[in-house]
Amino acid sequence: MTLHAREVVWERGGKLIVNGVTLEPRQGQMVGLLGPNGSGKSSLLRLMSGVRRPTRGTVLLDGTELSRARRREVAKAVAVVSQHADTDVDITVRDVVRLGRIPHRGAFGGDPGADEAAVTAAVAHTGLTGKLDQLWHTLSGGERQRVQIARALAQEPRELLLDEPTNHLDIQHQLELLTLVARLPITSVVALHDLNLAAMFCDQLVVLQSGRVVAAGTPSEVLTEELIARVYNVHARVSGDGPDGRPSIRFSPAPVVESVLAG
Ligand SMILES: Nc1ncnc2c1ncn2[C@@H]1O[C@H](COP(=O)(O)OP(=O)(O)OP(=O)(O)O)[C@@H](O)[C@H]1O
After folding, report:
1. Which of 53, 91, 156, 241 is the most exposed place for a label (fewest CB within 10 A)?
2. Where are the domains of the chain?
3. Residues 6 or more apart whose Cβ sits within 8 Å of residue 253
4. Pick from 165, 1, 125: which is nearest to 73 by CA?
5. ipTM attached to this prediction
6. Which of 155, 154, 156, 127 is nearest to 143 (CA)?
């Protein structure tokens, strides 16, 4: 069993932002959530993490509706890395990563040895060992993103929800992060904009458009020239010469409108 969304609908201001989405990742898989800006990826992740409740449909954790599950059990099982984590408080990298251990603390405290081991491993995996005492607000955008990922890893979740985790990272850290997530023995759902990274790392892809699933399957099944043209409105060449024969996508520049060039 794992974290499943069944026919979820989320309505705001009379608009169906998520419109009947079913997402049932298999245990241990990495599922890429694709779609243009505003297609509902972040909203769906918020429904799956329990931050928002669906208007209709259900999100199930091990078969129990998320809203009925015990908060601590959800917090232990599901870790979230959202796009816009920020704080003005003077807090160090170590403090932020330690926040991931809160769900593991019972009424009589947790296991300090296990907490420290989880924090140390998470920090090492994300290449932050030298930065433990640095203040959060002095970090670069990419370093902050890695700290949030370290916090999620320190939580030792079974399910990991990541909203565009690579958007501030340089190419080395993008590849390292997705390699790490792909190798973790947990289920992950990752919203991504980079179709080549999605093709390279994900087991399954789900494509949203206007809140609906318009394609789902393996990267080779989903990432076709026809789908990319239809959903993203761009021309692309797709070949099978990515790593392990996965799709590799080469985009054509967009046609430029003369009036834009004229300023
Ligand atoms: N609380 C809200 N109230 C009203 N509209 C909302 C709310 N949250 C999101 N939306 C709208 O829902 C749509 C989907 O937003 P969402 O952030 O889920 O898209 P996304 O696919 O993650 O986009 P991006 O790729 O740009 O991050 C957008 O049009 C957004 O303006």
Report:
1. 241
2. 3-261
3. none
4. 1
5. 0.98
6. 127
- Rounded Cα distance between 48 and 61, Å, is 9
Expressed in angstroms and rounded, the spacing between residue 194 Cα and the centre of ligand 1 is 18
**pLDDT by position in tens, the chain (length 263):** 689 999 999 999 999 999 999 999 999 999 999 999 999 999 999 999 999 999 999 999 999 999 899 888 898 999 999 877 666 678 999 999 999 998 887 666 677 788 899 999 999 988 888 999 999 989 888 888 889 999 999 999 999 999 999 888 899 989 988 998 898 889 999 999 999 999 999 999 999 999 999 999 999 999 999 999 999 999 999 999 999 999 999 998 876 666 656 66
Ligand 1 centroid distance, CA of 73 (Å): 28
Residue nearest to atom 5 of ligand 1 (CA): 12
- Residues 21 and 189: their CA atoms lie apart, in Å, by 14
Pocket around ligand 1 at a 6 A CB cut-off: 12-13, 17, 35, 37-43
Mutate to test the pocket of ligand 1, among 10, 37, 42, 194 (most ligand atoms within 8 A of CB): 42
Atom of ligand 1 nearest to the CA of 208: 21
What's the CA-to-centroid distance between 97 and ligand 1, angstroms?
Answer: 28
- The CATH number of 3-261, from 3.30.360.10, 3.40.50.2300, 3.40.50.300, 3.40.50.720, is 3.40.50.300
Match 């990274």 to its residue by tokens. Answer: 197
